[in-house]
């Protein structure tokens, strides 16, 4: 079961999706946690969630998921869990905030808020990582390879012990 969590092919497309999705979300998370990239910072982001009627615990979870989940995604450690958390984060954002503004982003300042097209694209980028893993050059792949080597080593030793026990 644990091995399945880390198992992933040496797939460069998954790596590309992982790095893009992680980078894009890291900027959003850093806006909320650190106030970087013109973001509000932690206190103001929490206040904003409060104004939306989102409980403090869920606001904290969203902020930390965006920041730390994106870092996990970037390096490909617990990629499936990070992707799942970020997908859920985007789905909740659509349901609680963005759905009422329609599909389109607010490119022309003609609507009261941002639509959900970005969120759908993000989910589409993260979904293959959830299903197939973090891909090439990921910590998960290194762990999966370790499990494979470890299993082979123990299987060989068990076979040798059994064959020479008589």
What does the model show?
- The protein has one domain (about 1-165).
- About 70% of the residues lie in helices and about 0% in strands.
- The chain is built from 7 helices and no strands.
- The chain has helices spanning about 1-5, 10-35, 40-50, 55-75, 80-100, 115-130, 140-165.
**Biggest beta sheet summary:** none
What fraction, in percent, of the residue positions are helical? over 70%
- What sort of overall outline do the alpha carbons produce when their principal axes are compared? elongated
Q: Please report the total strand number as a whole number.
A: 0
Secondary structural class:
mainly alpha
N to C succession of SSEs = HHHHHHH
Number of helices: 7
Indicate the topology.
Layout: H1 2-6, H2 12-34, H3 42-51, H4 56-75, H5 79-98, H6 117-132, H7 139-163
Helix pairs in contact: 2-3, 2-4, 2-6, 3-4, 4-5, 5-6
Question: Keyphrases for this structure?
Answer:
166 residues; 7 helices; mainly alpha
A few lines on this structure:
With 166 residues, the chain is mainly α.
